[in-house]
UniProtKB/TrEMBL annotation:
Gene3D superfamilies: 3.40.50.2300. It comes from the Eukaryota. InterPro entries: CheY-like_superfamily, Sig_transdc_resp-reg_receiver. The lineage of its organism: Eukaryota, Viridiplantae, Streptophyta, Embryophyta, Tracheophyta. One of its GO terms (biological process) is phosphorelay signal transduction system. This is Response regulatory domain-containing protein.
Amino acid sequence: MEGGRGVTRVLLVDDSPVDRRVVQLLLSSSACAGSFHVIAVDSAKKAMEFLGLKEEGKVKKKKKSLC
């Protein structure tokens, strides 16, 4: 790390492949080059898995009343 600058890790979550690519290109532009390490995923579930977070104690769905 030169000049005390580190690399910032970014977890990019978006269901649009075009939007993910645009953000990746912006963060890898010459102005930001080397400043960011981008991991891109297309869903919140994949982001949670990447972070090592699992759904514990899932909330049960309420049953609809027929009355």
